Amino acid sequence: MPLLVLLFQLQVAGAVPTAPVTPPTTAPAAPPAATETLTLEQAVGAALAHHPDVVVAGAQTEIARAGARQARAPLLPQLGVTGRYGYQWRDTGDDEFGDGGGSDSFSATASGNLLLWDFGQTRNRWRSALAASDAANQDAETVRQGIVLNARLAFLDALETSQLIQVARETLDNQSSHLSQTEEFVKLGTRPEIDLAKLRTQVAQARAALTRAENDHRTAKARLNRAMGVSGSIEYEVAPTEFPALAEESQTTAHLYNSSRRSERASQVASIRGQEADVRAARTWLLPSLRLGADAGYGGTDFADPIFSTSVGVTLSWNLFDGLASPAAADSARAQLVVQQARLSSVDQQVWQEIEEARIGVASSRAELESAVLAVESARELRRLAEERYTAGVGNSLELSDAQLELANAAAQHVRVQFDVAAARAQLLRALGRRDWR
Known about the structure:
Blueprint lengths: L2 H11 L23 E2 L1 H11 L1 H21 L5 E14 L8 E18 L3 H68 L4 H36 L8 E2 L14 H7 L3 H21 L5 E12 L6 E11 L7 H68 L4 H35 L7
Parallel strand pairs: 1-4
Antiparallel strand pairs: 2-3, 3-5, 5-6
Helix pairs in contact: 1-2, 2-4, 3-4, 4-5, 4-7, 4-9, 6-8, 7-8, 8-9
């Protein structure tokens, strides 16, 4: 299925999230014409709908939910039906041929029982399974957040390489223009032929750089396909998109930590809740259980005259000694609880660290962006002056070459830092446990 058709169907079905994305304030150059254009929302929607990790996480959640339903089953009435038919033949020895007689027998019984009380052992096991289901659901959300981040970063990479193509193309056009100008100067005898040879080398290098940029862009789109969990053509263009500034960028780490909604922490809290239920269940292992039972049946040897019977009773079961297995199980459950609590502390430390690093990353990349903007402005002015000096016959080819190279490097660095800022903001969203961009 073509990629555009697939993504259009996802939008119609409502699979694509509605994260607000605004056009960039410094819009990149328009990409070459293509039959398909991929937006950020489409990329994220495809990743959430088709990435194998999301499918696996969803299946694991269903497994945990089914386990919770199984754990609840002993608390509900248990019903069963049994039936039997038999034929008995016997030799009476009444005649010389040894003829015997036979008789039919049949029975059918319906039985049911209900757990009345077992000191909360079964109910605590059910609570533990419910907590495991909650933890699995939070784990699935963790997977989805990671997939969203990867899709965003891959989309940014593809968009960055697209803009680097434009930088390489502008550099090649500028070098080609200088080459034509120098050819005229050489014909007039105002410039030596060595300038022409040098510029031809620079044009060849610029053309090779453009080819590398185009190949990097195709590679980035292949990685984007992988991040979306789709296989298909990369003959599409990525729509220009900007990640706007976040209100959280100026807030302290402590404030961000307190307002974060990390699914990893919610999963660990659920695991602790489940383990506490396991501890309570282990403590009641050797206590008695009480069940209410009822039977109804009929049977006999004559289908025309069956015998009916019913019974109702209460059963007390008490395992007095199990070879010290129950105390060992209780000790194990308590130790597991200590492990889960320690893991929660580790998760809290990890969340704090990731928020701190993400916040610093945003601040650092924004500062670098300001420097990159100034560097581009300075490099453009330097090239303008070098071109004027070269045209006037005052400057030389080396001076002009250095100015051109400096502008190309500054423009490429400006593009990279722009997307470093966007990537840092995406990382900050992930550190806060958010998928939407607002």
